[in-house]
Design goal:
633 residues; Chitobiase, domain 2; TIM Barrel; six-stranded mixed beta sheet; 14 helices; globular
Length: 633
């Protein structure tokens, strides 16, 4: 890159009425750029409409040759579109990201382009707070509340607890200290006794507030931690005044999760730790760590050392180009085993378990680029993923494939004490393996017919191996398909396409975690406004939408024991900086926390909107950016 030329080319793009994208380059250089090629990424492959031509695509990453030279001070305009009619630019996030220019000598020139993040200028609604006794505002809403009249002013608590509960006190103080809150624990604070009550279920607690004291009952450390989170939240949201009350609180579900996609965008370790802190403040207890996908494998591995070393960074000259805003790069990073240990220890202090994910058999573009022998060399098929990638599926008919993933899963699983490992199993492209002679023989040998049969069989075999090594297999909902009943092995399935498959999978014996994209995917745009940010393939998801659904409807109560819980998800296709993730997650994470903890129908649309306004002070203390109130409903 020319040092003196840095940032002297400006790029703008707008969505036209017909959904195409008109782009403009303006150069402030003192020389002409001959034969310019603009490189950028979209959500899916681009096509040229006017004054340009596509040189090549790798999924949404495109090299676009412009039809004339870029001259100083003279704008160069051109029009592009998404290749598939199923994709139409909906808002700013759908415009070209990570732009840079190549000149006729293949030198990289920096381009100023689209910047990401939630718009702060959409003002659709006015949200009013609902008055609550003593300004009581806690998310998730406790199971039972009784207000007795009167209030108590608290600054700190003098906790009297048995030794087996003291760790929870230490952990809450550490959380408070690093989060910017005033201390909650001191020797001269409000007298607060803690008693053990083994009749309470795990993670549950009771709090009784009088005008002068506070009594807490718990059965375990996590229960005390959550009780103290509740008191901290009451103090902060109520300005130090809390109501005289009796709180009885127990979680509805044991799995209360949040997912983060670190494959499409590399998040710094400190960002992940801050997300865990936010989760703990909302009584979420499962972190689904997605560090493996088409675009990267970001975890240190001894068995497959070149996999993480060669895919951690992308850009010009890398194994993969600047997908999803990666730019000229090198962009990215990887997580060492020391990073893993740090994240797990931090999560443990917040009563959060960490589950890693390995993608199999699809979403394996980077694996195939590094280890092409995991596909049939004679496969002449034309399968293409929904993201536009060709050859992103490994082939279970190749003997080395199963052995490779077994070793990788067991190595990764050994790093995570939770002993759950997610095996992927989603978005298998149409026509997968249709051109593979090895797969034809494999199907005949194992009496398989469809691609779903093959995936179900392969997932089952991998699950057998991880189960034999004391790991609980988990997978996306598609892994329950196939003639043999899918992955089986007492696997936990994650439902993302909606709740409609819950009855079928539960009736097959599968335990499920519900994460419907229409309600819990925080990468979805809040609104349909073109100045907003995010995807919309599932829906636009407002804060109100996060509570406007029921995990286990009344007619499916017979399967209630098969629903382990609820999980939010954040996919990072549009994320180029860590901070851009924050206002996509907050305040919508409040709705997921309520669905995961609260009783059926406990939180209404009006309540979640009001609670979000109350929680703005909490987000500020955590230094966590929050979407503006105009996007809440």
């Amino acid at each position: 890159m020319h040092g003196e030329d840095s940032a002297k080319i400006d790029f703008t793009s707008v969505i036209d009425k017909d959904g195409t994208i008109t782009c403009e380059l303006v150069s402030r250089l003192e020389y002409t750029v001959a034969e310019p090629v603009l490189c950028f990424s979209l959500l899916a492959p681009a096509t040229a409409i006017d004054n340009c031509r596509v040189v090549d695509n790798t999924g949404g990453f495109t090299r676009l040759a412009l039809n004339r030279s870029l001259e100083p001070g003279i704008s160069l305009s051109f029009v592009i579109d998404y290749q598939s009619p199923d994709f139409k630019a909906a808002n700013r996030a759908w415009l070209p990201l990570g732009c840079y220019l190549l000149n006729d000598n293949a030198q990289v020139l920096e381009v100023h382009g689209v910047t990401g993040g939630v718009s702060q200028h959409i003002d659709r609604v006015t949200v009013n707070s609902i008055a609550m006794p003593g300004q009581f505002a806690v998310v998730p809403k406790p199971s039972h509340l009784r207000f007795s009249g009167g209030t108590q002013t608290i600054s700190t608590l003098n906790i009297s607890a048995a030794p087996e509960f003291r760790a929870a006190v230490t952990y809450i103080e550490a959380l408070i200290s690093r989060s910017g809150f005033e201390s909650l624990i001191s020797d001269n604070g409000t007298v607060s006794g803690v008693r053990s009550d083994l009749s309470l279920s795990p993670e549950s607690y009771e709090i009784e507030v009088s005008t002068s004291t506070i009594a807490i009952a718990v059965s375990d450390e996590a229960g005390l931690f959550y009780a103290l989170v509740t008191l901290l939240t009451m103090r902060e949201s109520g300005g130090g005044v809390i109501p005289v009350s009796k709180i009885e609180d127990t979680p509805r579900f044991c799995w209360r999760g949040q997912h983060l996609d670190c494959a499409r965008h590399f998040y710094e370790v400190d960002t992940i730790l801050r997300l865990l802190d936010l989760m703990a403040m909302l009584k979420l207890n499962r972190f689904h760590w997605h560090f493996s996908d088409d675009e990267a494998f970001r975890l240190q591995s001894d068995f497959a050392s070149s996999l993480w070393q060669d895919t951690a960074y992308r850009g010009e000259g890398q194994l993969l180009p600047g997908l999803f805003g990666g730019g000229a790069g090198p962009t990215g990073g990887s997580y060492s085993k020391a990073d893993v240990a740090k994240i797990i220890a931090h999560a443990k202090s917040l009563y959060i378990e960490v589950m890693p994910e390995i993608e199999y058999p699809a979403h394996a573009l980077c694996v195939n680029r590094r280890f092409p022998y995991l596909r049939d060399k004679q496969d002449n098929g034309v399968e293409q993923s929904v993201q536009g990638y060709q050859h992103n599926v490994v082939n279970p008919a190749v003997p080395d494939t199963q052995a490779f993933f077994e070793k990788l899963c067991l190595e990764v699983g050994d790093l995570f004490p939770f002993s759950h490992i997610h095996l992927g199993g989603d978005e298998l492209p149409d026509d997968s393996w249709n051109g593979s002679p090895m797969m034809d023989s494999f199907k005949s040998k194992h009496q398989l017919v469809t691609k779903e049969d093959v995936q179900g069989y392969a997932m089952h075999e991998l699950a057998v191996k991880v189960r034999a090594n004391n790991l609980v297999p988990c997978a996306w909902e598609e892994s329950g398909r196939g003639a043999g009943g899918g992955i089986q092995n007492d696997a936990i399935l994650f439902l993302w396409q909606g709740v409609q498959k819950f009855e079928q999978l539960a009736s097959m014996g599968y335990r499920c975690v519900l994460s419907p994209a229409q309600h819990t995917y925080f990468d979805m745009a809040h609104t349909s406004d073109k100045s907003d940010w995010g995807a919309n393939w599932a829906a636009t998801v407002s804060l109100a939408d996060t509570v406007n659904w029921e995990p286990v409807p009344d007619n499916l109560e017979r399967y209630a024991d098969k629903c382990l819980g609820v999980q939010g998800a954040f996919w990072s296709e549009f994320t180029t900086r860590d901070k851009e993730m924050e206002a996509m997650i907050a305040p919508r994470i409040l709705g997921v926390a309520c669905k995961a903890w609260c009783k059926k129908g406990a939180v209404s649309r009006e309540e979640i909107l009001s609670l979000a306004r109350s929680y703005e002070v909490i987000f500020r203390k955590l230094d966590w950016q929050c979407a503006p109130a105009g996007l809440y409903s």
